[in-house]
User: Fold this.
Amino acid sequence: MGGSGGSNTEIWAFLNAFEFSFPSEEQLEHIEAIIIPGSALSVSDSKTLTWMAVMKDFIKNVFNNQPRIKLLGISFGSHIIAESLGGKVEKMLYIN
Assistant:
Protein backbone atom coordinates (compact mmCIF):
# COMPACT_ATOMS: atom_id res chain seq x y z
CA MET A 1 0.00 0.00 0.00
CA GLY A 2 1.49 3.30 -0.94
CA GLY A 3 0.87 6.91 -0.19
CA SER A 4 1.10 9.75 -2.66
CA GLY A 5 3.35 8.59 -5.48
CA GLY A 6 3.89 5.24 -3.73
CA SER A 7 6.49 6.72 -1.36
CA ASN A 8 4.93 5.41 1.85
CA THR A 9 4.98 1.64 1.79
CA GLU A 10 3.31 -0.52 4.41
CA ILE A 11 4.56 -4.03 4.91
CA TRP A 12 2.13 -6.55 6.36
CA ALA A 13 3.09 -9.91 7.83
CA PHE A 14 1.07 -12.87 9.01
CA LEU A 15 2.42 -14.69 12.05
CA ASN A 16 0.93 -17.89 13.40
CA ALA A 17 0.65 -18.06 17.20
CA PHE A 18 -0.49 -21.70 16.94
CA GLU A 19 2.99 -22.49 15.67
CA PHE A 20 4.67 -20.14 18.19
CA SER A 21 5.55 -17.71 15.41
CA PHE A 22 6.02 -14.30 17.04
CA PRO A 23 8.12 -11.30 15.96
CA SER A 24 11.65 -11.12 17.34
CA GLU A 25 12.82 -8.13 19.36
CA GLU A 26 14.60 -6.87 16.23
CA GLN A 27 11.41 -7.19 14.15
CA LEU A 28 9.42 -5.35 16.83
CA GLU A 29 11.60 -2.29 16.21
CA HIS A 30 9.98 -1.97 12.75
CA ILE A 31 6.37 -2.79 13.69
CA GLU A 32 3.80 -0.04 14.11
CA ALA A 33 0.74 -2.11 15.00
CA ILE A 34 -0.34 -5.64 15.82
CA ILE A 35 -3.83 -6.87 14.98
CA ILE A 36 -5.09 -9.96 16.77
CA PRO A 37 -8.24 -11.25 15.04
CA GLY A 38 -11.12 -13.43 16.13
CA SER A 39 -10.90 -17.16 16.68
CA ALA A 40 -13.16 -20.16 17.16
CA LEU A 41 -11.30 -20.64 20.44
CA SER A 42 -11.87 -18.87 23.73
CA VAL A 43 -9.33 -17.41 26.13
CA SER A 44 -10.75 -19.85 28.68
CA ASP A 45 -8.99 -22.55 26.59
CA SER A 46 -5.61 -21.09 27.63
CA LYS A 47 -5.27 -23.65 30.41
CA THR A 48 -4.91 -26.44 27.84
CA LEU A 49 -3.33 -24.59 24.90
CA THR A 50 0.27 -23.61 25.63
CA TRP A 51 0.53 -21.18 22.71
CA MET A 52 -2.01 -18.90 24.42
CA ALA A 53 0.21 -18.51 27.49
CA VAL A 54 3.12 -17.63 25.21
CA MET A 55 0.90 -15.17 23.33
CA LYS A 56 -0.19 -13.51 26.59
CA ASP A 57 3.47 -13.08 27.58
CA PHE A 58 4.18 -11.62 24.13
CA ILE A 59 1.28 -9.13 24.49
CA LYS A 60 2.49 -8.07 27.96
CA ASN A 61 6.00 -7.60 26.61
CA VAL A 62 4.80 -5.44 23.72
CA PHE A 63 2.52 -3.38 25.96
CA ASN A 64 5.19 -2.79 28.62
CA ASN A 65 8.32 -2.47 26.47
CA GLN A 66 7.12 -1.20 23.08
CA PRO A 67 4.53 1.48 23.93
CA ARG A 68 4.68 2.95 20.41
CA ILE A 69 3.23 -0.29 18.96
CA LYS A 70 -0.54 -0.14 18.73
CA LEU A 71 -2.47 -3.26 19.77
CA LEU A 72 -5.86 -3.95 18.19
CA GLY A 73 -7.96 -6.94 19.17
CA ILE A 74 -11.06 -8.11 17.35
CA SER A 75 -13.36 -10.44 19.31
CA PHE A 76 -10.97 -13.14 20.63
CA GLY A 77 -8.12 -10.66 20.11
CA SER A 78 -9.67 -8.12 22.48
CA HIS A 79 -10.27 -10.87 25.04
CA ILE A 80 -6.68 -12.12 25.03
CA ILE A 81 -5.31 -8.57 25.19
CA ALA A 82 -7.59 -7.84 28.17
CA GLU A 83 -6.55 -11.00 30.02
CA SER A 84 -2.88 -10.44 29.24
CA LEU A 85 -3.03 -7.01 30.85
CA GLY A 86 -4.85 -8.14 34.00
CA GLY A 87 -8.49 -7.96 32.92
CA LYS A 88 -11.08 -10.64 33.46
CA VAL A 89 -13.01 -12.25 30.60
CA GLU A 90 -16.19 -14.18 31.35
CA LYS A 91 -19.09 -15.60 29.42
CA MET A 92 -21.98 -13.21 29.18
CA LEU A 93 -25.00 -14.19 31.23
CA TYR A 94 -28.23 -14.01 29.29
CA ILE A 95 -31.39 -13.37 31.28
CA ASN A 96 -34.76 -13.77 29.61
